[in-house]
Amino acid sequence: MSNDPFAQLKVIQREGWSLFAPLEAVTTATAAELVRHARIRAGQFVLDVGCGTGVGALTAARAGAKVCALDLSPVLIQHGRQHAALAGVEIEFSEGDVEALPYLDSTFDVVISQFGHMFAPRPDVTIAEMLRALKPGGTIAFSTWPPEHYVGQMFALVGKFIPPPPGAAPPPQWGDPNIIRQRLGDAVTDIVFDRSVMLFPALSPQHYRKGIEETLGPVVKLVAALKDEPAKLAAFRSELDGFVAGYFENNVVRQHYLMTRATKK
Ligand SMILES: C[S@@+](CC[C@H](N)C(=O)[O-])C[C@H]1O[C@@H](n2cnc3c(N)ncnc32)[C@H](O)[C@@H]1O
Fold first, then answer.
1. Fewer C-beta neighbours within 10 Å, C or N terminus of the chain?
2. Residue 120 to residues 84, 143, 184: CA-CA distances in angstroms?
3. Tens digit of pLDDT at every position of the chain (265 positions)
4. CATH code of the region 5-156+163-199+256-264
């Protein structure tokens, strides 16, 4: 394995995220929200980064856009190709890293990411790549988890138990409008934020926890890392259950998220 800590992190992330496919059941509806927020129209050339099984890409393609989609995980991309075939749409899927996009400058009318680019460790590199691939006047739009709500708290908790390599930014920073404004900087105009809630069905907080321990990359990896440290694992589970309890009602966990849209200058 490479000595580069970020390359090592991505090897771990690629494997961890490969179990994500069942969670498309909850990201499908929010993908439609992001495609609406991004104002994607028929005929536009769209890129979905951190596409997972392609829920955003597929929604854009069904709206008539020409779509490329990229993800670290070849397993998820394979699911995406099957989805596209089933829906009868063409999407060009690629395995790759949002920090090094394999597209020419100024290629796309719209670049989107639903809970994807936020997991790349270097926000400055990530945003520079997303904007590089976008045409001047094009739209960048993404959904992210705010630090003050449940999912942001959960990722902060994961980071407390398994700290990321030095220099890697915590993913929930991408859910803070002030930080987003700084990161987009002078490269964009017309930043627009909107907020929504993902409803995650579960029979109990414990069912919810078991589900994400089996599917949500960073949590899958954390549970595996703590398998010989039962006290630490119990502490993690207890803290997680405490966060979930505050957002669990009527058999759903309410997962608040932020949507951002901006225009490249
Ligand atoms: C929470 S999932 C979201 C997947 C999909 N966008 C959805 O909404 O269902 C995060 C995705 O980001 C991808 N990802 C994480 N880091 C990445 C990187 N550096 N480059 C490309 N994809 C990345 C993961 O492989 C995973 O598919």
1. N
2. 25, 14, 16
3. 678 999 999 999 999 999 999 999 999 999 999 999 999 999 999 999 999 999 999 999 999 999 999 999 999 999 999 999 999 999 999 999 999 999 999 999 999 999 999 999 999 999 999 999 999 999 999 999 999 999 999 999 999 999 989 999 999 999 999 999 999 999 999 999 999 999 999 999 999 999 999 999 999 999 999 999 999 999 999 999 999 999 999 999 999 999 999 999 9
4. 3.40.50.150
DSSP string, 92-115: EEEE-BTTB--S-TT-EEEEEEES
Between the CA of 71 and the centroid of ligand 1 the distance, in Å, is 6
Ligand 1, residues 10, 15, 72: which to mutate, most atoms within 8 A of Cβ? 72
Ligand 1 geometric centre to CA of 8 (Å): 16
Domain boundaries, the chain: 5-156+163-199+256-264
- Helix, strand, or coil (residue 134): strand
